[in-house]
Amino acid sequence: MTHATDPALYNDDLAPIPVEKRDWTWINMATVWMGMVHNIVVYEGAAGLMALGFSAWECMEVVAVSYMVLFVAMWFNARAGTRYGIPFCVLIRSAFGPFGAQLPVVLRGFCAIFWFSVQAFAATQAIDAIVGTVWPWWNTLAMPLLGMSLHRWGALCLVWALHVWVMNHGVTRIRNFELVAGPLVIVIGAMATGWALHVGHGLGPLFAVPSRLHGSAFTLAFAEGVTGMIGMWATFAVNIPDLSRFVRSQRDQVLGQAIGLPVTALVFTPMAIITTSATVLLFGRPIWNPVELLLALNHPVVTVLGGAVIVLATLSVNVVANIMPACYDLINLAPQTLNFRRAGFLVLVLGLLFMPWLWFSEAESIYRVLDIISGLLGPVTGIMLADYFVLRRQNLVVADLYRRDGRYAGRHGWHLPAPVAFVVGGVCANIGIIIPALASVGSVSWFVGLGVAAALYLALAGRKARHA
Questions:
Q1: Would residue 2 count as lying in a domain?
Q2: What is the domain range of residue 261?
Q3: Distance of CA 461 to CAs 133, 379, 385, 415, 451, Å?
């Protein structure tokens, strides 16, 4: 196929993976998701739900609905990746055109690198706690440098080195790493839950707290909770083809995602709530930050082992959910210069430039920015689903995705219905920011963006096709 491709749109990393080389089974897909679902952001997500006024059991209902919606979206959006062996940044060209595709690709890449940076700093805190526990002199390296102490810089370097080690041999090492990391985190989480049940003599105080929400207030908060949980994975709902392209069959990708996504989330969420219940009894308040909990327990062995688990969990989510998609997105921008390994190192450098230690003191700002980005990625998901399942009827001419003059080229590389639908859908999803009276739209922003963009795209693209 390479003789007909444009060098600006193609290299070996972006090329379709032949069927005979797609060796991921449902087990690989499930363990990858297990490794991603167990991360600090998801762990602390339960705190946000309970802060809204839900009971622990209602939190479980929010999680169940959220992850079932995500599962359905990712199940369908993954199909093209499995069928054709192509990544998100190539698949999106059928809707946006080869140059127009750079718009959602850059947006997704920005979000991936930002999340990598934030998650990596969470692991940095854990490494810092581990080393400071084993060698107390470590904590004396307190000289400030660019807003962070010298010993924290040392921990950050160690975390970045661990990411380099996992990424050094590309997708094969990532697959093998997740095969071990995903299940291991569940086992250790179960041990922590057992400890919490022992301390709390049962499910604990948080499960005994009744709901503070009723009637319309409950309905609105439930919608906000579901949208917020979806927002954590809105980025991955877009680029799931980056993973599904390695899976050998549609059955494997569906079964793997079903086990690894909603099932694992429903197991992990009560673990987080039960463990936090034990902190209420021990310290008189809920401690949702795992690193803070380890330091509060003040037991060297627990700090070291628990910190290692946090680092493992962070690595498992970062390499798949953030570094891998960011690599493909960067390669898509410069396929003649970048390959997977070079792009991986570039992601690590760009992640440092985000200076996550400064953002951590402004958590509200982080989530405000990421909520807006998630609201913009809902329209991308809607456009992708509408394009592939309705407009293209699940049939793509793959060779034309790598050409400027193919059937997906549009006008000068832009298929205009997609950018128009993307902008309108994004504005509708975030309309509450512009018009405060419509702030309630924010509680269902992902759904609004997806629905508006999909409908408008089909209306514009269908009309264009009829007049072609």
A1: no
A2: 31-362
A3: 60, 15, 13, 9, 15
Instruction: Dig out the tokens for 20 from the structure.
Output: 């005979």
Residue 449 has pLDDT above 80, yes or no: yes
Q: Closest by alpha carbon to 271, among 70, 26, 34?
A: 34
pLDDT-above-70 percentage for the chain:
90
Does the pLDDT of residue 468 top 50, yes or no? no
Q: Which helix or strand (DSSP H or E) is residue 148 part of?
A: strand 148-149
What separation in angstroms does the CA of 274 have from each of 44, 82, 200, 222, 313? 13, 38, 9, 21, 19
Tokens 């037991």 correspond to 299
23 DSSP assignment: -
Tell whether 1 is covered by a domain: no
- Residue 439 confidence (pLDDT) above 50: yes
In this predicted model, what pLDDT tens digit does every residue of 118-139 receive, in sequence order? 888 888 988 998 899 899 898 8
Residue where the block lists tokens 């493992």? 312
Q: Is residue 387 part of a domain?
A: no
Tell me the per-residue pLDDT of 308-359, one tens digit each, with 9 for 90 and over: 878 887 887 888 888 888 999 999 999 989 988 899 899 999 998 888 877 6
Total domains present in the chain: 1
Token pair belonging to 8: 């600006």
Is 159 contained in some domain?
yes
In angstroms, how far is CA 139 from the centroid of its own chain? 33
Question: What is the mean predicted confidence (pLDDT) over 11-21?
Answer: 93
Which residue, 367, 444, 282, is CA-closest to 51? 367
Helices (H), 85-214: 88-91, 93-96, 102-134, 150-167, 170-200, 205-208
DSSP code of residue 1: -
Q: Please state the pTM of the whole predicted model.
A: 0.85
The enclosing domain of 259 has a CATH number of: 1.10.4160.10
CB atoms within 10 A of CB 412: 11
